[in-house]
Design a protein that fits this description.
234 residues; mainly alpha; two-stranded antiparallel ribbon; 62% helix; globular; disordered N terminus
Amino acid sequence: MDEWSLIMSDKPTNSALQAVTVWDISVRIFHWSLVAGIGFLWYSGEEGGNIMTWHMYVGYTMLGLILYRLLWGIYGSTYARFSYFIKSPGKTFNYAKDFLKGESPHYLSHNPLGGWMAIVLMSLVFIQAATGLFATDDIITEGPLFSLVDESTAYLLTEIHEINFNLLLLCAGLHIAAVLYHRFVKGEDLVKSMITGKKNVALTPSAGLKFSWYKMLLTAGLVGASIYGLVNMT
């Protein structure tokens, strides 16, 4: 077992398990806000009309969430840090082989595939929010930074905005499928863990959860101020 992850047996007995806090409150708020935001953006984008004003507000919020998570992944709580759950291509490939054989172990934080999927999802949400700042529907809705680029660039970014959302939905679907696999095949309830912040593990982790409300609030404040300044710069 390496020091950056807690691995437990594939099917530990209930008597050997203990609840360990893994996900701090900000990671859980981030996760469920992202879920709700993607759902609303999908609905409002299809609906159009006056609701597009809220579509834009939620888009700004999503951009802020991603920026917050990027910072939190650098200096945030123990298991939220990218250095804890992002594995090398070699380790990820070996995990994928074990996964296909049905022999993959459990990890305290994200497993190697889950870690990279989290990065992909965050990247797609960032692209979605960033391109939306320049997008236009050719009717009444324009992103707040639309005037900063020429028309051809705005149309290109609008097209990327539309295509990228389909990729985002595809990856979200794969993520949901993986969560269901862990729940019904491996007996690991990831949804409950992301609600309570706790995981049931068979071994005592080498590092406890280190969380700071001060850092959380300071980071959220800085990100919020940055997003406000960005969307009001024109």
